[in-house]
């Protein structure tokens, strides 16, 4: 009989797990694409203040990730360790998101306090459900190829959710607000929150946790952190996630400014980011096929090299060459699409490696610390944008000077390209290949039989 941990997952379970990431992108894509421009152009605070606030909150929130991961690893219910969070947290998260996109009638300083408080609350709630969800992918199956398939499907839904958000959100804000963007944003987030909550509950009811820590395992949070710090492949992925999130966030967040102030056609955002999302979904769908023939490490190096070349090429595109802009964007989507399922599959592999090496397993902590690096990368990218805008003289809802326009173009091209090159360099230190993973799984299975 095929061991339960490595038995093929049903397509119902794969679908049910993957679809939740569409719900997460109802939040994440709104945050990454629209939150900064919401704060500067609707909420009414400066780019520097918004960037500093978002940076500070992301840093604080990043340090809550290991705590939430440790709590999830130590959660014990009849539903498992990670699934219950998909039932407990959706409503608090939805309420926090609506408050974040609410513009109160307060003084400038009062608005800053409101922004700090609501954004931090939303990010903590997001973490409380996202980290257990990420960890769930590591306990659905012990088969590395099944993990690649599950994460590939997951990110198809993620990119589909991102496409829907970037295409529909501006129209929803206009439709709900009837000229009042403050009301429009508030009601738009209410709708996204409801749909996201329904998807999270669907995942809860249709998935199953199959992998548990060794029965004899005794560890504390500090032991988990020490294990990770000595887990070389995980350390590599930590810095990889940090750098890739900087690369992606720089371009995604700058795109709204690029089309509004450089191209002069802000309506193109409704097609530009969705073009990336659709092509990324196609790339993600091809991940399981590619990993059958190309080692994960080599594949990641190839993909990030292509990203660096295409991002650099964007610098040379004239502001009236919309077709070329979209072509490069689609190319980057195809290159970056497999990155996410690859990375999350590799995180699960490092959890197995940790158990194989130490006899201890901390799946949620593995993913939480990875999420820490992603949030830190996002925070750094947003801070770079806000501070660069301030230095170059950005003025919201006004024609930009030549320095500000040039800065926006660099943020769409050479600056993210440099970080993509760094990602390539870091991957050379990753030391888990397919042969090693086969050995690890065989040894872990043998231990469980003994």
Automatic annotation (TrEMBL):
<dbReference type="Pfam" id="PF13347">
    <property type="entry name" value="MFS_2"/>
</dbReference>
<keyword id="KW-0812">Transmembrane</keyword>
<keyword id="KW-1133">Transmembrane helix</keyword>
<feature type="transmembrane region" description="Helical">
    <location>
        <begin position="299"/>
        <end position="316"/>
    </location>
</feature>
<dbReference type="InterPro" id="IPR039672">
    <property type="entry name" value="MFS_2"/>
</dbReference>
<feature type="transmembrane region" description="Helical">
    <location>
        <begin position="113"/>
        <end position="133"/>
    </location>
</feature>
<feature type="transmembrane region" description="Helical">
    <location>
        <begin position="322"/>
        <end position="338"/>
    </location>
</feature>
<feature type="transmembrane region" description="Helical">
    <location>
        <begin position="183"/>
        <end position="205"/>
    </location>
</feature>
<keyword id="KW-0472">Membrane</keyword>
<comment type="similarity">
    <text>Belongs to the sodium:galactoside symporter (TC 2.A.2) family.</text>
</comment>
<dbReference type="InterPro" id="IPR001927">
    <property type="entry name" value="Na/Gal_symport"/>
</dbReference>
<feature type="transmembrane region" description="Helical">
    <location>
        <begin position="408"/>
        <end position="430"/>
    </location>
</feature>
<dbReference type="InterPro" id="IPR036259">
    <property type="entry name" value="MFS_trans_sf"/>
</dbReference>
<feature type="transmembrane region" description="Helical">
    <location>
        <begin position="271"/>
        <end position="290"/>
    </location>
</feature>
<feature type="transmembrane region" description="Helical">
    <location>
        <begin position="376"/>
        <end position="396"/>
    </location>
</feature>
<feature type="transmembrane region" description="Helical">
    <location>
        <begin position="234"/>
        <end position="259"/>
    </location>
</feature>
<feature type="transmembrane region" description="Helical">
    <location>
        <begin position="153"/>
        <end position="177"/>
    </location>
</feature>
<protein>
    <submittedName>
        <fullName>MFS transporter</fullName>
    </submittedName>
</protein>
<feature type="transmembrane region" description="Helical">
    <location>
        <begin position="26"/>
        <end position="51"/>
    </location>
</feature>
<feature type="transmembrane region" description="Helical">
    <location>
        <begin position="84"/>
        <end position="101"/>
    </location>
</feature>
């Amino acid at each position: 009989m095929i061991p339960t941990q490595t038995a093929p997952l049903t397509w119902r379970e794969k679908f049910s797990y993957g679809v939740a990431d569409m719900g997460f992108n109802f939040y994440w894509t709104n945050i990454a694409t629209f939150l900064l421009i919401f704060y500067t152009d609707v909420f009414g605070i400066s780019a520097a203040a918004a960037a500093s606030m978002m940076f500070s909150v992301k840093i604080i929130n990043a340090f809550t990730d290991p705590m939430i991961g440790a709590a999830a690893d130590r959660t014990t219910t009849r539903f498992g360790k990670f699934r219950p969070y998909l039932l407990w947290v959706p409503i608090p998260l939805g309420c926090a998101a609506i408050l974040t996109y609410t513009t109160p009638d307060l003084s400038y300083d009062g608005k800053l306090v409101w922004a700090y408080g609501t954004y931090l609350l939303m990010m903590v709630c997001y973490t409380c459900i996202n980290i257990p969800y990420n960890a769930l992918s590591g306990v659905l199956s012990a088969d590395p190829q099944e993990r690649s398939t599950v994460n590939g499907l997951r990110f198809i839904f993620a990119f589909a959710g991102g496409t829907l958000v970037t295409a529909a959100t501006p129209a929803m804000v206009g439709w709900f607000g009837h000229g009042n963007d403050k009301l429009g944003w508030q009601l738009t987030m209410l709708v996204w929150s409801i749909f996201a909550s329904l998807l999270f509950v669907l995942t809860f009811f249709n998935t199953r946790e199959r992998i548990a820590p060794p029965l004899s395992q005794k560890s504390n949070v500090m032991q988990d952190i020490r294990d990770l710090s000595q887990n070389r492949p995980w350390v590599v992925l930590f810095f990889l996630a940090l750098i890739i999130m900087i690369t992606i966030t720089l371009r995604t967040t700058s795109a709204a400014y690029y089309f509004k102030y450089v191209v002069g056609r802000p309506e193109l955002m409704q097609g530009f980011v969705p073009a990336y999302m659709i092509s990324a979904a196609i790339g993600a769908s091809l991940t399981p096929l590619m990993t059958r023939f190309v080692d994960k490490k080599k594949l990641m190096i190839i993909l990030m090299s292509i990203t660096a070349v295409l991002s650099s090429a964007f610098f040379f595109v004239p502001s009236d060459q919309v077709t070329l802009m979209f072509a490069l964007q689609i190319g980057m989507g195809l290159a970056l699409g497999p990155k996410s399922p690859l990375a999350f599959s590799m995180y699960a592999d490092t959890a197995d490696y940790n158990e194989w090496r130490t006899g201890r397993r901390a799946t949620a902590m593995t993913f939480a610390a990875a999420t820490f690096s992603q949030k830190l990368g996002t925070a750094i990218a947003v801070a770079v944008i806000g501070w660069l805008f301030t230095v170059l003289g950005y003025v919201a809802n006004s024609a930009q000077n030549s320095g500000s326009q040039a800065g926006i173009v660099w943020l769409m091209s050479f600056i993210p390209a440099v970080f993509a090159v760094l990602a390539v360099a870091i991957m050379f230190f990753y030391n888990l290949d397919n042969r090693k993973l086969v050995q690890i799984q065989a040894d872990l299975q043998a231990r469980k039989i003994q």
